Amino acid sequence: MAELIPGVEKAAKSPEKAGKNLLVRMTNIDKYFGKVCALRGVDFEVKRSEILGLVGDNGVGKSTLIKILSGFHLADRGEIYFENKKVKINTPKDAKNLGIETVYQDQALAPHVSISRNVFMGRELTRGLGFMDKKKMDKSSLDVLAKIGLHLKDPEAVVEVLSGGQRQGVAIARVLYFKAKLVILDEPTIALSVKESQQVMDFILQLKEEGISVVFITHNLYHAFQIAERFIVLSHGERLTDVRREDTSIDHLSKIIVTGIHEGK
């Protein structure tokens, strides 16, 4: 099995405690696009302060599932519960109001705009007669970046001069500042160097330290296995397995993904 990052193994050994603390529960989710079935009867749970690895091949329904949870798609059937209350998530705004934030592969950052403006984009801080409070935004952006271990000095630096890992840090800092309860990260380490990927995984561990749950969607099982405490594997729109890290291995997960068959079936 892959070597674990210090501090994660202990958390992974307490699933019973986590099981009493569900943050999200999606039950019997179906989604069709015309005659194409993208999801069929999927159950999906995320615990509080948990890092969950959502894995599977391309086109198996991972993105569709998170887009339903993020309010970009409506399920054709099924129910969603958040903090033990049944909820309707019809729009991305509904998801944000619950505390669900999604960071996609492209991070939705404006490369020619400053770090602080990117952190607060669409939710700028104001003062007085509605004027933008640039001074507070600059300070707050550096403070929240430092909170995840990214110590940048110039809030006016444009995002395009940052490394790939630092850009992911800016996107993650944004959701941390606005007090997300659940952060969904879609392939956050894709196209990053080894060093940058490790930096992003450190950011994710810091979110957990802040009490934030994380859904880590990735093709890279070696990355996921270092930090995820539990794995859900999707194949052809169905859930194949929901397994704790200590009960599986990279080879076992790879076999399930490649064959599309759980060994227990």
Short description:
By secondary structure, the chain is α/β, with parallel strands linked by helices. It has helices spanning 9-12, 15-19, 62-70, 92-98, 115-119, 134-147, 164-177, 194-209, 221-227, 250-259; strands at 22-33, 36-47, 51-55, 77-82, 85-87, 100-103, 126-127, 131-132, 182-186, 213-217, 230-235, 238-244.
Description:
By secondary structure, the chain is α/β, with parallel strands linked by helices. It has a domain at 111-176. The protein has ten helices and twelve strands. The chain has helices spanning 9-12, 15-19, 62-70, 92-98, 115-119, 134-147, 164-177, 194-209, 221-227, 250-259; strands at 22-33, 36-47, 51-55, 77-82, 85-87, 100-103, 126-127, 131-132, 182-186, 213-217, 230-235, 238-244. The strands form three sheets. A six-stranded mixed β-sheet has the order 6-9-10-3-11-12, with helices on both faces. Strands 2-1-4-5 form a four-stranded antiparallel β-sheet, covered by helices on one side. Helix 6 (134-147) packs across helix 7 and helix 7 (164-177) runs parallel beside helix 8. The radius of gyration is 19 Å and the shape is globular.
